[in-house]
C-alpha cells in the first residue's frame, strides 16, 4: 500500500491487522543468513584495529544519501527537545494504551515528572536501576526549557496516539520497547540495530509500525525491511514480522513492506553496501589521522614517508 | 468569511508595533478574552463540514500535473526544492530578491529574536498553561532550540536587552489574558511540521503550524490551525495561513474547519473557514511561486523587471547609484 494522505486511524489499524500476504520459506531465510554471514564479517575485518561499527537507521540513511558524511567526525551526543521527544513520547503513549491516562498531553507531563522522581530515587538508592537518559538533562533545564521539551514530546505523542485505534488489537501492542540488536558473528566488530515504535500481533504474527520524520525517501522499502532483517538474524525465523508499516505524519504518508524474501534481500543489499561505505570511511579517517600525526603544524612532513627518517627543519 | 475577535480592534495601532510593540500593547484594550478566542476557533456552532474525500486528491493532481514540466527541468544533481511560505512570499514579490536570499546566511534581527521568544512562550502557555518569569522562560526555551537567537540575545547591549525583555513580557501578558488553559482533550500540537512531496520528491512544499487543535478527521473537518504573529500585521499573513491550510488538506486528506492568525502584540485573533475558495487560491499562489522557484533553480535569469515595491531592490539600486 502506498498512501499519500494521512489515513484514518481505522484504515491504518486495519492495514496493520491484515493477515500476512507474503510467505517466507525457511530455506530462503537460511540462504540469506549464509550470504550475510559470509559478506559482513569479511567487511568488518577491514576495520582499523580496535574499532567497532554500529549500524542503525541513521547510519544506513547517511551511507545511502550522503556517503561523504560517513567520514566526518561527529561530536558527542547533545540532548535537545527534538532528540528527546521520541523517548518521552513513547512512554506517554504507552501510558495511554495501558489506560492509565486518557490524553497524551497528560501522559507526557506524568512521564517527565516521574523522570525527575526516578533521579531522586536513584540518588538515594545504591546499585539501583538507571534513570532515563534524558532525565538528568531535563532536570537541569529551567521552566521555559522544560516546557519546550514537554511541547515537543506532546506533539510527537499525539501524532502516534491518534494514528491508531488501539482497542482493536488482540492484545495491547508494545509501544517502544527495547531496540533490537544483531551482533554479527566473527570477531564481534559489527553491530546492527533497529527499532520500531509499535509492535503488535495480527493473526498470530507480529507486525511493526515505524514512525519517520519528513517524507519517505527512495529507499523506504529497504529501510522498513531492515527492521525485519535484524529480527530475523538476531532471533530467527519465528520473530520475523508479517509486515512493517511506515508512517510519516508530517507528510501524511504511509508505506507498507510485506516481509518476504524480496524485501529481506533488499534490506540485506542495503546493509552490506552501507557497511562497505562505513568501513571505507573509517579506514580513510584512520589513515588521514595517521598522516596528520606525521606532519607538523605547518603541514610540512616531520617524518619522510618513504625512508621514515625525521626531516630537519633547518 | 474572515472575522476578528476583538471588539475594539480598530483602536489597536498595529502599524505602530513594528520595533515598538510595548507601546501599542500598553495602550490597547483590544485583547480578546479566552471565551472570545474559543468562540472564534469553534466557529458559529453549525455542524462542521463533511469532508469531500476527492478534494485533496484533486488538489494534489492539479499540483502534480502543473508542476511536472517545471520539475522535469530541474537539474538532476540538485537536492529536493524546498518551498516554504517565506520563500513563496519572496519569489512572488521579487525574483531577484528571492534569488539573492537563497544562499544567504540567516541573520538574526531584533524582531526575529522577539518572534522566536514569543513563539516559545506561546508553546509554553499551550502546553503547561503558566509562565514563571516570561523573559527568562523564553530565553531558557530558545537556549535549547535556537542557538542563533540565544547568541543574538546574549550579545545585545543592556538597553536593547531591556527593551526586548519588556516587549516579550508584554506579549506574554497578552497571551495569558487571551488564551484559555488548554484541555488535554483538545489534543494541542505545537510547531507541527507539514510536508507535501511532489514530482516524486523533487519538490517538497513545507511549513510549520504554530498550533493545531483537534483529532484527525474521520468524515468531518475536525482540525483547527492557528498561526502566531508577534510583529505588525502584514499583507502576506493571510496567504501564508491559507498555504498552511492547503498543506494540511493535502497531508491529511481533509481541510481544517477553521484557520486563524493570532497577533500577540495586540491580542487580536482573526479566524476564518478554510473553504474551497481559500484552498484554490492558495494552490494557485503556491503553484505560481513554485514554478518561478523551479525556473530559478534551473539556472534561468531572474525577471529583469524589478518590483518597485521591493525594499531590497530599492536598497541595492540605491547602493549601486551611490556607490555604497
List the defining traits of the structure above.
heterodimer, A: 314 residues, alpha+beta, 3-stranded mixed β-sheet, 9 helices, 9 strands, 13% strand, globular, disordered C terminus, B: 324 residues, alpha/beta, 12 helices, 7 strands, 14% strand
Helix amount of chain B: 40-55%
Enumerate how many helices of chain A there are, as a single number.
9
Instruction: State the helicity of chain A in percent bands.
Output: 40-55%
Global morphology of chain B = globular
Largest pleated sheet of chain B? 7 strands, mixed
The greatest interface between two protein chains, and residues involved on each side, is:
A-B, 43 and 45 residues
Derived from helix and strand composition plus strand pairing, the structural class of chain A reads alpha+beta
Per DSSP E runs of 2 or more residues, the count of β-strands of chain A stands at 9
Query: What's the Cα radius of gyration of chain A?
Result: 23 Å
Average pLDDT of chain A: 88
| Number of E strands of chain B | 7
Overall pLDDT level of chain B: 86
Return the domain count of chain A. Answer: 2
* Strand/helix succession of chain B: EHHHEHHHHHHEEEHEEHH
Can you walk through the features of this model?
- The complex is a heterodimer of chains A (314) and B (324).
- Chain A is of the alpha+beta class and 314 residues long.
- Chain A has two domains: 2-54 and 170-268, no CATH class; 81-163.
- Helices cover 47% and strands 13% of the residues of chain A.
- Chain A has helices at 9-17, 26-44, 57-65, 81-97, 104-124, 135-140, 143-161, 220-235, 261-293, and strands spanning 2-3, 53-55, 174-175, 180-183, 190-194, 198-202, 205-211, 243-248, 253-258.
- Chain A has a six-stranded mixed beta sheet with strand order 1-9-8-7-6-3, with helices on both faces. A three-stranded mixed beta sheet of chain A has the order 2-5-4.
- Chain B has 324 residues and is an alpha/beta fold.
- In chain B, strands 1, 2, 3, 4, 5, 6 and 7 form a seven-stranded mixed beta sheet that branches.
- In chain B, helix 3 (53-72) crosses helix 10 and helix 6 packs parallel to helix 9 (158-178).
- Chain B is globular, with a radius of gyration of 21 Å.
- Chain B starts with a strand and ends with a helix.
- The interface between A and B is large, with 43 and 45 residues.
Amino acid at each position: 500500500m502506498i498512501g499519500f494522505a494521512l489515513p484514518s486511524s481505522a484504515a491504518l489499524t486495519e492495514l496493520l491487522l491484515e493477515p500476512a500476504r507474503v510467505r517466507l520459506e525457511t530455506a530462503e531465510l537460511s540462504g540469506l543468513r549464509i550470504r550475510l554471514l559470509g559478506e559482513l564479517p569479511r567487511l568488518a575485518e577491514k576495520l582499523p584495529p580496535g574499532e567497532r561499527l554500529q549500524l542503525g537507521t541513521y547510519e544506513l540513511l547517511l551511507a545511502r544519501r550522503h556517503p561523504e558524511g560517513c567520514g566526518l567526525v561527529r561530536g558527542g551526543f547533545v540532548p535537545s527537545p527534538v532528540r528527546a521527544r521520541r523517548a518521552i513520547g513513547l512512554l506517554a503513549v504507552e501510558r495511554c494504551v495501558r489506560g492509565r491516562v486518557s490524553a497524551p498531553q497528560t501522559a507526557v507531563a506524568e512521564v517527565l515528572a516521574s523522570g525527575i522522581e526516578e533521579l531522586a530515587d536513584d540518588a538515594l538508592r545504591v546499585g539501583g536501576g538507571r534513570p532515563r537518559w534524558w532525565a538528568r538533562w531535563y532536570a537541569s533545564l529551567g521552566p521555559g526549557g522544560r516546557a519546550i521539551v514537554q511541547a515537543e514530546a506532546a506533539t510527537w505523542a499525539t501524532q502516534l496516539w491518534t494514528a491508531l485505534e488501539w482497542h482493536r488489537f488482540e492484545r495491547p501492542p508494545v509501544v517502544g520497547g527495547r531496540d533490537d540488536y544483531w551482533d554479527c558473528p566473527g570477531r564481534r566488530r559489527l553491530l546492527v540495530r533497529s527499532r520500531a515504535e509499535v509492535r503488535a500481533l495480527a493473526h498470530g504474527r507480529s507486525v511493526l509500525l515505524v514512525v519517520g520524520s519528513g517524507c519517505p525517501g527512495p529507499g523506504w522499502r529497504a529501510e522498513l525491511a531492515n527492521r525485519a532483517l535484524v529480527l530475523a538474524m538476531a532471533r530467527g525465523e519465528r520473530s520475523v514480522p508479517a509486515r512493517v508499516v511506515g508512517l510519516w505524519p508530517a507528510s501524511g504518508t504511509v508505506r507498507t513492506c510485506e516481509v518476504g524474501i524480496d524485501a529481506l534481500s533488499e534490506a540485506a543489499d542495503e546493509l552490506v553496501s552501507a557497511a562497505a561505505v562505513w568501513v571505507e570511511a573509517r579506514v580513510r579517517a584512520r589513515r588521514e589521522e595517521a598522516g596528520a600525526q606525521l606532519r607538523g603544524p605547518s603541514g610540512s612532513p616531520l617524518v619522510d614517508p618513504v625512508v621514515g627518517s625525521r626531516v630537519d627543519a633547518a | 468569511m474572515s472575522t476578528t475577535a476583538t471588539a475594539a480592534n480598530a483602536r489597536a495601532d498595529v502599524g505602530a508595533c513594528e520595533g515598538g510593540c510595548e507601546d501599542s500593547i500598553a495602550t490597547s484594550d483590544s485583547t480578546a478574552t479566552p471565551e472570545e478566542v474559543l468562540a472564534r476557533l469553534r466557529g458559529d456552532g453549525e455542524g462542521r463540514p463533511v469532508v469531500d474525500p476527492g478534494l485533496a486528491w484533486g488538489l494534489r493532481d492539479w499540483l502534480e500535473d502543473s508542476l511536472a514540466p517545471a520539475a522535469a527541468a530541474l537539474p538532476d544533481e540538485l537536492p529536493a526544492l524546498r518551498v516554504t511560505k517565506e520563500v513563496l512570499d519572496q519569489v512572488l514579490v521579487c525574483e531577484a530578491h528571492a534569488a539573492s536570499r537563497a544562499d544567504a546566511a540567516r541573520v538574526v534581527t531584533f524582531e526575529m529574536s522577539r518572534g522566536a521568544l514569543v513563539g516559545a512562550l506561546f508553546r509554553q502557555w499551550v502546553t503547561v498553561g503558566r509562565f514563571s518569569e516570561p523573559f527568562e522562560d523564553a530565553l531558557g526555551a530558545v537556549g535549547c532550540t535556537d542557538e542563533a537567537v540565544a547568541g543574538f540575545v546574549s550579545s545585545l547591549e543592556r538597553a536593547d536587552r531591556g527593551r526586548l525583555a519588556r516587549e516579550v513580557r508584554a506579549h506574554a501578558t497578552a497571551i495569558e489574558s487571551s488564551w484559555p488553559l488548554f484541555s488535554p482533550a483538545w489534543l494541542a500540537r505545537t510547531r507541527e511540521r507539514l510536508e507535501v512531496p511532489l514530482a516524486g520528491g523533487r519538490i517538497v512544499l513545507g511549513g510549520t503550524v504554530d498550533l493545531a487543535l483537534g483529532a484527525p478527521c474521520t468524515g468531518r473537518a475536525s482540525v483547527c490551525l492557528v498561526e502566531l504573529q508577534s510583529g505588525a500585521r502584514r499583507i502576506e499573513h493571510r496567504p501564508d495561513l491559507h498555504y498552511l491550510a492547503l498543506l494540511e488538506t493535502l497531508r491529511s486528506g481533509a481541510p481544517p474547519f477553521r484557520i486563524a492568525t493570532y497577533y500577540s502584540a495586540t491580542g487580536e485573533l482573526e479566524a476564518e473557514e478554510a473553504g474551497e475558495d481559500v484552498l484554490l487560491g492558495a494552490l494557485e499562489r503556491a503553484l505560481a511561486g513554485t514554478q518561478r522557484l523551479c525556473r530559478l533553480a534551473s539556472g534561468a535569469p531572474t525577471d529583469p523587471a524589478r518590483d518597485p515595491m521591493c525594499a531590497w531592490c530599492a536598497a541595492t539600486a540605491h547602493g549601486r547609484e551611490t556607490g555604497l
